Amino acid sequence: MKMEKTLVILAAGMGTRFGGLKQIEPVGPNGEIIADYSVYDAIKAGFTKVIFVIKEENLTYFKEHITSKYQDKIKVLFAFQTWQNVPSFVHIPAKREKMLGTADALLSCEKLINEPFAMINADDFYGASAYQIASKFLEENSDPYTYLSVNYPFYLAKSEHGKVNRGVVNIKDGYIENIDECTIYEEENKIIAENKKTKERKVILKEQEVSLNFFVLKPSIFNLIKEEFKEFWQQPITMDNELILTDVLKKYIRNKQIKFKAASSLSNWLGVTYKEDLSIFKEKLNKLIEKGVYPREL
Length: 298
What we know:
The chain is α/β, with parallel strands linked by helices. The chain has helices spanning 34-44, 59-66, 102-107, 128-140, 220-232, 245-254, 277-290, and strands at 6-10, 49-54, 75-80, 117-121, 124-125, 146-153, 164-172, 175-187, 190-195, 201-204, 209-217, 259-264, 270-271.
C-alpha cells in the first residue's frame, strides 16, 4: 500500500511587513502564487495530500483561484484557524485580529491528520530539495517523537530590504539542541541575531543554519501543543501575544521528550518579506523557469 504523505501549508496569517496577504500575491508568469510551486515540488517528491490552513473567509477564493489547478493531482483539504478552541474562561480583546500563532494554526488541522506530515509556510519558496528530503524522512523514520527540520544557511534566507525573523538553530551530531526565534539584521558589516524574547544580541556567520518553518512532524506534536496551551491560557491575552511552534519544539527538545533531526536543503530559498522583495523574487523565479526547473505554466 502506498504511503500517504501529507503537506500542511500555513496560509492564515497576514504579511504585516509586506503590507497585505502575501500568501496569495501572484509571483509566477501566469498568476501562480508561492504555494502553487510548493505543491508542485511536493507532488514530484511523492506527496499525496495537502492541507491548507486558512481563514474561513478565504475558502472560496482558494478553491476557485488556487487549488482548482491541481485538485486532480493531489488530495486537497482545508482547515480554518479560528477562535473556536479558546476556552470559555479566556478573554480575547475585542479588537484583536491577529491569530494565536503557528502552534494554534497547526492544531487547527489535527482532525485531518493521522499520519506523519511536513509543514511549511505559504509565503516561503523552499525549492525541490526540501521536499525530497522530507519525503525520504517520512519513509525512513517511524519513531513517533523524532521530527525533522529542513534548514538553510542565513545568506540564502535573508532579505536585501530589512530585518527578517528566523529560527537560529544549534546543531550537534545531526540533531538540533536549541532553536531561538530571532530578528536578524546587518549592522556595521556584522550579522546580528536578536532573540525575540530575551532581546539578547549575538553575532552570527552568514553560514549560520536557520529554520524557516519547514518541519516534518508526527501526530504526537498535537498533544505537546495542547499541553503548552494549558499554560498559555493562564496568562492575559493581549493584542499580539501568541504561541509559536518553535517555542513548543524548543521546550520538548530541552526536556529530551523529542529528537529534532537537522537537514540542510540543497535548493535556494526565495521569499517575500517586504514589497521590495517581490521584483527580486520574480526575477529569480523566471531564471529557474528559463533553466527548465519549473514549467512556464504549472
